[in-house]
Amino acid sequence: MASTANPTLLDRFLTFINPYHPAGRSVVGPFAGALPALGPTDCVLLAVSGGLDSVVMAHLFQNAGLRFAIAHANFRLRGDESDDDALFVENVAKRYRVPFHLTQFQTDHFACETGVSTQMAARTLRYDWFEQLRDQNKYAWIATAHHRHDVLETLLLNLTRGTGLAGLHGIAAWQGHIIRPLLFADRTDLETYAIGHQLDWREDRSNADDHYARNRIRHHVVPVLQGINPNLLHTLTATIDRLRAAQTLAQHELDRTAEIVLNAAGATTQIDLVSLRTLTEPAFRLAEWLRPFGFTYQQTTAMWQAIGQGRGQEFRSGTHRLIHEQDGLTLTPILATTAPDSDLVLVTEVPDYQLSISPTHRLIFQIFDKPVDFMPPADPLIASFDADQLTLPLTIRRWQSGDRFRPLGLNGQKLVSDLLADQKVPRLEREQIRVLLAGDRIAWVIGKRLDHRFRTTALTRRIVQVQQAEM
């Protein structure tokens, strides 16, 4: 039963995960029905850090009689505290008698290898692992414990950095296999529930560190805004619901008019400027249509202004080029010209060896003794391998359907196709991706991710470093 300290939270939770629950729409407002209803046989994988939010989520799943398992990722960023968090969450799983999954990541090493922040590295590692667990154990969904304060903070972060309509949503309640069943609640709701049920939870000291932008917003910006509008969270919930409806309407209009303006033939798309100019907000429409091809809103705005000054201009994103010709624009992939599909086998010695892998790219190989203070370069185009783990011959070929490897930082394998999809690599660019194999094992999805088995470690003596470079 729900605690008398907060008698409606369990009903609100049940309504949020099942829009047909008798509690009705009124208890969660516009979020009702935002999630898929959970079936009686569905087992949900809960991402539990040990903090207040995820501890309450696990308790609500237990009280609701739902089937669930618990997963905890130890990022090894806070020493003994990280280990204590893992033990705490394991005991939660034992108390509820549910399956428990635990893994450890070398997060700092992964961040250095991939050239991303520690926070982004942790996010990538944990979501890759959660999806791996979901697939292996046939869990219906992955649940995270984001709540309304998280939505507010994400919205403010996106506004600070610049965003489109999608970024104004903050955090989606349902995205792919991920559900967020606490978005109806705020932090005060969860604290009241936890205290009423005498729940223990872990405090993460990094949440108090103003080094992180999200924490600065939480500690300094949100209190000011709530001073102006004490009902800020309620106002935000209603506003996000309207923004989500507005984006759905806008997307419908974009899809409808794309059939009039865009004409795709193979890898080339023609954009009819005469038709585009008859529509309202033509620059915005063009920006939305070009965004999947790597063009930013700022690029498209400048492009639209330049188009009015004459023909012949060419504009480029990382993967595509757009050429202004007469009354239209021609969009083509930069990598439209490809190399033959035959495999390239490295048979000579590695030092100072260069190998062409396409008309536009080559690989540069080096081998050297590992320096005492060696750190893998943060550039994703450079891979550092433990020389003793590489077996000849080394083969470079295009990735193929069914190719699997073990991404750096993960315990299990992943399809290369899933990696490229998760990284949102455009379809035309995906066709150009190569893999480097040591023997019959993929050691590197070139320019994207190293295989964990070939990484450098404290025991590494010699390093083979491979760099992808333009011709």
Detail the topology: elements first, then pairings:
Blueprint: H1 9-17, E1 43-47, H2 52-63, E2 67-74, H3 80-96, E3 100-104, H4 107-114, H5 118-137, E4 141-143, H6 148-161, E5 174-175, E6 178-179, H7 187-196, H8 213-228, H9 232-261, E7 262-265, E8 268-272, H10 273-277, H11 282-290, H12 297-307, E9 314-316, E10 320-325, E11 328-333, E12 344-346, E13 353-356, E14 361-369, E15 382-386, E16 394-398, E17 404-405, E18 414-415, H13 416-422, H14 427-430, E19 434-438, E20 441-445, E21 449-450, E22 462-470
Parallel strand pairs: 1-2, 1-4, 2-3, 4-6
Antiparallel strand pairs: 5-6, 7-8, 8-11, 9-10, 10-11, 12-16, 13-14, 14-22, 15-22, 16-19, 17-18, 19-20, 20-21
Would you write up a description of this structure?
The protein has 471 residues and is of the alpha+beta class. It has 3 domains: 9-242, HUPs (Rossmann fold, 3-Layer(aba) Sandwich), CATH 3.40.50; 266-333, no CATH class; 344-470, Phenylalanyl-trna Synthetase, Chain B, domain 3 (Phenylalanyl-tRNA Synthetase, Chain B, domain 3, 3-Layer(bba) Sandwich). Helix content is 37%, strand content 21%. The chain has 14 helices and 22 strands. It has helices spanning 9-17, 52-63, 80-96, 107-114, 118-137, 148-161, 187-196, 213-228, 232-261, 273-277, 282-290, 297-307, 416-422, 427-430; strands at residues 43-47, 67-74, 100-104, 141-143, 174-175, 178-179, 262-265, 268-272, 314-316, 320-325, 328-333, 344-346, 353-356, 361-369, 382-386, 394-398, 404-405, 414-415, 434-438, 441-445, 449-450, 462-470. Strands 3-2-1-4-6-5 form a 6-stranded mixed beta sheet, with helices on both faces. Strands 7-8-11-10-9 form a 5-stranded antiparallel beta sheet. Helix 6 (148-161) packs across helix 8. The longest helix has 30 residues, at 232-261.
